[in-house]
Backbone:
């Protein structure tokens, strides 16, 4: 395998990590919608951290190795339409992904406040925060952006 | 993935999408299951979450990935180079392991009702981690195409 083959493999592995993290967050988004207890919300935090690390590594690896490949391969250029489209979609997914995290962290923060103030019982406010429609929308948009990147990578329109 | 796309007629891309999309869902579901089971710390709710991720996300992902793989191989008629062999080996072995993980995990989830079953779900977690290693090797082989 040449260096470029290795970079391609790392690029694809990063993409799988990115999508793996998104799938993990979808499962958490569904699970947290029925969670109104502070302790149950807080217990999800370690899994959230795993997801954050995976998405971070996947996102950075995908763009770095992807740009490397666009430069290394003579038949592709960084300014090709489909490459620019992928970079724009990647940036959109990053922005919406960060907003998803911010929306759902409100529930986590409130759960920790309730727990430390000695209110471990069910909380309608916490349930509402965990069911954030803004967070759900942002995660959906992140998923759409990543799905479009996959379509772009397979079809390579204009290449 | 990229190299395959270069030499493939446009209409075959749908099959490639099915294969890669399924593989991503499979990887994501298995990763979610392993993470949830590893960090559940005995919490029955998160243990169940991990198991159901494997059953309702990873398993359908495997089916999509496998259907896509068979169809693309039939269309391409590229024989069986090393990287296809790695893919088949991982796919076949992982199907068996996934089935074992689901059966063992199912027993574990059932036994959670009586406050037991954690050991079974730890076994499911261990198998999920092995599956992730295998999937990583397969992704590397499919994309780097050694040989």
Residues:
């Amino acid at each position: 395998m040449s260096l470029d083959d290795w970079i391609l493999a790392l690029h694809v592995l990063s993409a799988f990590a990115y999508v793996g993290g998104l799938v993990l967050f979808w499962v958490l988004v569904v699970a947290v919608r029925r969670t109104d207890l502070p302790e149950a919300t807080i217990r999800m935090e370690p899994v959230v951290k795993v997801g954050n690390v995976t998405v971070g590594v996947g996102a950075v690896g995908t763009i770095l190795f992807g740009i490397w490949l666009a430069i290394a391969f003579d038949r592709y250029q960084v300014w090709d339409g489909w490459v620019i489209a992928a970079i724009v979609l990647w940036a959109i997914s990053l922005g919406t992904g960060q907003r998803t995290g911010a929306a759902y962290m409100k529930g986590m923060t409130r759960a920790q406040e309730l727990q430390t103030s000695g209110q471990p019982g069910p909380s309608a406010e916490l349930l509402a925060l965990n069911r954030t429609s803004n967070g759900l929308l942002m995660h959906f948009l992140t998923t759409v952006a990543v799905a479009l990147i996959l379509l772009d990578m397979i079809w390579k329109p204009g290449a | 993935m990229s190299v395959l796309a270069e030499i493939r007629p446009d209409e075959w891309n749908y099959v490639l999408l099915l294969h890669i999309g399924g593989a991503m869902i499979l990887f994501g579901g298995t990763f979610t299951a392993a993470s949830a089971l590893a960090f559940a710390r005995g919490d029955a709710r998160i243990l169940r979450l991990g198991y159901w991720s494997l059953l309702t996300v990873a398993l359908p992902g495997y089916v999509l990935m496998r259907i896509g793989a068979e169809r693309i191989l039939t269309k391409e008629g590229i024989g069986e180079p090393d990287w296809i062999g790695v893919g088949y080996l991982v796919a076949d072995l992982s199907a068996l392991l996934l089935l074992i993980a689901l059966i063992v995990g199912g027993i574990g989830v059932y036994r959670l009702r009586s406050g037991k079953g954690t050991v079974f779900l730890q076994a499911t977690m261990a198998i999920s981690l092995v599956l992730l290693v295998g999937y990583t090797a397969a992704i590397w082989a499919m994309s780097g195409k050694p040989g």
Summary: Chain A touches chain B through 35 residues (CB under 8 Å). Residues 3-155 of chain A form one domain.
